[in-house]
Design a protein that fits this description.
Chain lengths: 382, 158
């Protein structure tokens, strides 16, 4: 049997639209300090580190070289994953299993407010020869996908708007969230159209912040904490980046990543065996599309279930109790970190007013954003 | 300044503004060479995978499913297709609001697995529908330069 690995420490700065008073390094330092305190360790106790960074988003051509200091990782084994936070989590998990040492640390960061040309950064992720010459907004890619998703599943505009209403309301009672607000469906539907049917309110506003997570192998985990949160399954997957040939209606990347994680966790019926989920909602419709891809709901049913309140904190299957990316903020490569952070808080019973009752297993899922088709999933249990 | 002290005004914050000037040449590759040279002739080419029985547009020298080499398998695929999905976009690539929105669509070229992300023209947004038959409208031959913009837009087939 494989060794078990648990999350034994979490630390975060919380998430705000701007953080002018601190540098990106100081954000990580704050989250790291809290995570080490939470785990009851010092950086010298850590055997390996994994940081998460996208060069363009950090403003360096080799951003990973700038990650050790603020983590306490100077002259220690460390490397950077240019993907989602959950990719880094998988990497740290594997390092423990491969015998590098019993304790591993994962870091992720967003300093999105530093990016003065954020829209262009995302545009430069598109194919330079076939897509970029049109000089269209990357939001057009989301508009195209949202339209096809609605067409294939029969999901209505109102059902999708309910995702925004729910997540931004949940954020109001999450002290870490930066974008909580009370709005109704009409407000979402009447907000400015960005790329029809996508409106301004369907797009997660960006946030800054950092998350650091400490992982430990079973024996060490039990010695460090009374509340270990076990990694039961983890998966990741990428579809073709080509906009010309990809599947525009379904999130196949999320489906395959989830099946990989379910298989590892021994989960057959995700809706029954998982209590709640934090899924990527950088755009409102993505929450529904991801839930259906991961077999939490059948195709075309996530919208109706959401409209009936089934995904509220006190609903039958709560989704994004933290407020999600819509309510907490789009954190780019840190989006998976927000999801993991919230699932751990829920499973420890530390989610305050947003606490779901009697939860034992949660799912955290992320996506690398436009124009990618890359997804990550981790299943955690207390 | 200690970590627990906070600035009172954003204007008190010191920062350094920097730019990263970048220029790049993106070679189109062997499949791209074929595609864009034929584009100048007003033709659209794809590459067929005989093993998977599917056609890639734009063409490539490998099949993403079975990894077969496709370089000998270029073929003309015509200029007609169907609207797979569509949107009306009000924002430019740098996040600025457009005065006149554009209609952007994914067009599946008939008989192929691929196609284009391109504009729709000669049509009102309210009249566009899923599966609408469209055809490529090329620039005048002397204006073509071997680029995706040699196609002006796709228009409905009347």
């Amino acid at each position: 049997m494989t060794k078990r690995v648990a999350i034994v420490g979490i630390g975060t700065t919380g998430f705000r639209a701007t953080t002018p008073d601190v540098s990106y390094r100081e954000l990580t330092y704050e989250a790291a300090m809290k995570a080490y305190l939470d785990a009851g360790i010092e950086p010298k106790d850590v055997d390996s580190f994994v940081s998460t960074a996208e060069d363009f988003f950090e403003g360096y051509s080799i951003a990973d070289e700038y990650s050790p200091d603020q983590l306490g990782a100077v002259l220690k084994p460390i490397y950077t994953v240019p993907g989602d936070f959950i990719h880094s989590l998988a990497s740290a998990y594997m390092m423990i299993l491969s015998g590098i040492g019993p304790i591993s640390v994962v870091q992720g960061l967003s300093k999105a407010s530093n990016m003065l040309t954020l829209s262009e950064m995302v545009t430069f992720a598109m194919d330079p020869i076939y897509n970029r010459p049109l000089k269209e907004s990357p939001h057009a890619v989301a508009g195209l996908e949202m339209a096809r998703f609605m067409y294939e599943t029969g999901t209505t505009r109102e059902q999708i708007a309910q995702v925004v209403v729910k997540n931004r309301r949940n954020a109001l009672t999450n002290p870490y969230a930066g974008h909580g607000v009370l709005v109704d469906i009409d407000y979402v539907l009447n907000s400015e159209v960005v790329s029809y049917p996508l409106t301004q309110m369907d797009i997660a506003p960006h946030s800054d912040g950092a998350v650091v997570v400490v992982l430990a192998e079973e024996e060490t985990a039990k010695a460090l904490t009374d509340k270990p949160i076990w990694i039961r399954g983890i998966g990741w997957c990428s579809d073709t980046p080509g906009l010309e040939t990809r599947n525009w209606g379904e999130a196949v990347y999320a489906q395959i990543a989830a099946e990989m994680a379910y298989k590892m966790a021994g989960i057959r019926y995700p809706r029954k065996e998982i209590d709640f989920a934090e899924v990527n909602d950088e755009f409102s419709y993505k929450e529904l599309q991801h839930l259906e891809a991961m077999r939490i709901f059948r195709k075309g049913e996530a919208g109706a279930f959401t409209a009936m309140g089934g995904t509220e904190i006190n609903g039958e299957f709560p989704v994004n109790p933290s407020g999600g990316c819509l309510g907490v903020g789009n954190l780019y490569e840190l989006n998976g970190g927000l999801k993991v952070l919230e699932v751990v808080r829920q499973l420890r019973g530390e989610a305050g007013k947003n606490q779901i009752k009697n939860v034992t297993t949660g799912l955290a899922q992320s996506w690398r954003g436009i124009p990618t088709a890359t997804g990550t999933v981790v299943i955690l249990s207390n | 300044m200690a970590l627990i002290e906070r600035f009172q005004k954003v204007t008190d914050v010191t920062y350094w503004e920097g730019q990263i000037p970048m220029s790049y040449i993106y070679t189109v590759g062997r499949a791209g060479e074929k595609f864009f040279r034929e584009m100048i002739n007003g033709k659209i080419f794809g590459a067929k995978c005989n093993q998977c029985n599917l056609i890639y547009v734009p063409p490539r020298i490998y099949c993403e499913k079975c990894f077969e080499r496709l370089e000998e398998n270029y073929l003309e695929v015509g200029t007609k297709g169907k609207v797979h999905t569509f949107t009306q976009c009000y924002e430019t690539y740098d996040g600025v609001r457009k005065e006149v929105p554009s209609i952007v669509a994914v067009i599946r070229i008939d008989g192929t697995e691929g196609g284009f992300v391109h504009w729709l023209g000669e049509v009102e947004f309210k009249d566009v529908y899923f599966g609408m038959p469209v055809e490529a409208v090329f620039k005048d031959k002397k204006e073509r330069e071997g680029s995706i913009l040699d196609i002006k837009y796709f228009r409905p087939i009347k």
